[in-house]
Amino acid sequence: MTFNTSVDWADGPVGDSVVFDRSFTARMKTLLRTEPIHQIADVAGQRSWADAGFDLHTLCLAAIDAVVSRQRLPDEATYSEVLGLLGELARRAVPGADQRVYAEVATYVVDGLLNTPGKSAPFGYDLIDYARESAARRVEFTLLYEREQRATGTVVLNATVDAINALIGGLDCDVEDEQAAVELVLDRQLKQGKFDQAQASARMGSQLSIQYFEELSAALEATRRDVRSVDWREAMPQRLARAIDHVGERLHAEAQLLEHVRAGQSGDGEASGAKRPAHAVAAVVDLLEDCRTRHTELHSQLIDARDTFLDEQVRQRFRPPASLQTPDLAEDVLHPVLRGNREQAEAACEVFAAAAFGPCAPRLPRISRLVDMMLSPRVVTATPVHLPDDPGELVDPPASIVEAAVEGAVAAVASIGLPARLSTLVANADDAAARLIVYAALWAYAPSGEEGDQDPDGVASRILGPTPVVTSDGTALAMPKWCGDDLVVAANEQQTAE
Amino acid sequence: MIDIGHMQEVGQLIGFAVQPNVRTATDLEYRRLVDQYRSKVEFASATDAVLTGLGLEVLSVDELGIVVAPTRDSPFVFRLADVGEALRADADQRLICGLALLGIAAYGYPTPADLEEAHVRYADVQGIDDLLRAAFDELAARADSDPDTDEYGMDEAWRPYRKMRSLVTSKRGGRPTKECTQYWIAKVLEWLHGQGMARPAAGRGEGRYVLNERFRIHVRELAAHAAYTYLTEHVDHIQTNPDGVVEEGER
């Protein structure tokens, strides 16, 4: 091969080059998703069976296909099942080899896709992104992963969105539109009796459903981590509503298609149906039924999604934001423990073990505990035996509210005057005063019905006046430390009306 | 107000909570009670109140069941002394068990992102031992070259572990003996198995365990923070993220 060395690349038309197009980077990223498969095939060159004629690319894709075909259905594929399938495919490719070789090939492929040799870490590749100023970037992704089915405890294989995309062929657009398009194509192909294509399209539709499912799962998982990380005010409810409509439409469309295919099968269809091969029809029917099962499942997940949000909101309500940053176990825990002295390390290990082992139901009395119990001073119960008759005594001790903060809050509100938005009131106050203003506004917005909670020291009425009226028009607070509605605070009903 | 009949159900649910190996898919009563906890606020509040009284904190409630963790003064809390008693371990061996548990978690979840994903992780005895020993070697090298380390004496936590051999097998049967660290790591994994936190990974290699979703929840929701907070509050000279070079090649 020769190159024209006279070309001056620096003067070339780089400015208009396609590499600056964002879609180019998107395609590059898609291309990279296939890279682990090539690596699996390449590295196999060192194995004793490397030249035996196994097609590792095909085995990789077959493994992903086998996983995706049952993903999120009750009988998801397990590691050993996929090994069995690949072993059988390997045997068909190279008959007569030792049974152990087939098992080894299958294990090699599935472990490669799981990146078991790399301790299941994501695959990572560097690419040059010409569309961005800092051109070099690292792309990390996973293809297959194992997941514990929460109810049964069975460990099953799942494909990531990345793997599904790579398998489908880099379709990177709105899932719903794409699926509608797929169904249209399917319908046309069925009418023309092109069953192979129809089957391919039905398969594609099913894969897109899984992809959609994975996106929803990712949003729910993010919510479980940190409820604020997903926009549940607007974006998520809209997405859910759209998705529920979408699933309804798909279920309807799939039912119609099924009917259409079955009519063709029984000979009631149009003349072109005469050539339809029975196995292809059966495969399309299977696929469509699979799609319907998935969509029914997805539908119930969608219905439960809002509950997840509400549950998490309750669970994370009083959790300090700092605890959402998970420490690095090696760097932040193990290494500091090791650098400490023995006493400190023992105590830290004890703390970790107590939290990591879970509850141990005591079965037999343990001598060490008995001795501990007998030597320890008598524990005074924190809960008083007599509940006071007057519930008013149960209110928080007033000493917890610092007078200076109340004065700061009163001054901050007075300097701005009511009515005003919460964000305006809080803007110039210091931290303690700001917190009091927010609490006072929240209290005025939804005063507790219980007697003991009726603004005991009159703090709220000192800050917001005797008859505060707080309303919400749904505007979100845009402040770093707070989230929720930017409430409108007025001194009385009349102001609110104005 | 919740009636006596419901209190009985609260008790049943708590009974399930302290039996981590029961699954909602196989025990329909458990499943019903979990659903009830999630759908009825009164029932959930009553359960939470009794759990608080028992020194138990709810970490998660879903198809996995109700996952609870004991507070430090709960009668349900696990202590390393319990291992000592059950396995006749001396003080050094108990510390080795404690470090092994940290090693298991650090091996299974090498980065914070790994703790966030509900992906199954594996841990094997040899790998955990290697990870811990690599960390000790690094610290030993640093201690030798840095005169300041004398300040905290020679009683660093890792010395008993490093002194013990990695693997010593019995003459009869060829099984690891108490004289080696791999024996203790395997024991801790067995204990985790009993607690529903791990299980042997059949057909996936010698000494390999699956770390269960329950373990990830405990480590992520509680253990990692508890230990981290303890270290930052009680250990003055410990600076997190100094020039940590130990886990090179981890990822």
How would you concisely characterize the structure shown here?
The complex is a heterodimer of chains A (498) and B (251). Chain A has 498 residues and is mostly helical. Chain A has helices at 22-32, 35-43, 56-70, 79-93, 99-114, 161-168, 175-191, 195-225, 235-265, 278-316, 329-339, 342-356, 367-375, 403-416, 422-427, 431-445, 459-464, 493-497, and strands at 123-128, 136-141, 144-148, 155-159, 420-421, 469-471, 488-490.
Describe the structure.
The complex is a heterodimer of chains A (498) and B (251). Chain A is mainly α and 498 residues long. Chain A contains 18 helices and 7 strands. In chain A, a hairpin with a 7-residue loop joins strand 1 (123-128) and strand 2. In chain A, helix 2 packs across helix 3 (56-70), helix 3 runs antiparallel to helix 4 (79-93) and helix 6 runs antiparallel to helix 8 (195-225). Chain A is extended and about 90 Å long. Residues 1-7, 268-274 and 383-398 of chain A have low confidence and may be disordered. With 251 residues, chain B is mainly alpha-helical. Chain B is 53% helix and 10% strand. Chain B has helices spanning 4-17, 28-39, 41-53, 80-87, 91-108, 112-116, 125-145, 158-163, 181-194, 213-234, and strands at 56-62, 65-70, 121-124, 198-200, 208-211. In chain B, the strands form 2 sheets. Chain B has a 3-stranded antiparallel beta sheet with strand order 3-5-4. Chain B has a two-stranded antiparallel ribbon with strand order 1-2. In chain B, a hairpin with a 7-residue loop joins strand 4 and strand 5. The model of chain B is unreliable at 239-251 (pLDDT under 50). Classes of the chains: A mainly alpha (498), B mainly alpha (251). Chains A and B meet through strand 3, helix 11, helix 12 and helix 13 of A and strand 1, strand 2, helix 4, helix 5 and helix 6 of B.
In order across it, which strands form the biggest sheet of chain A? Answer: 5-7-6
Helix content of chain A: 40-55%
Radius of gyration of chain B: 21 Å
Measured by DSSP, the beta-strand proportion of chain B falls in 5-15%
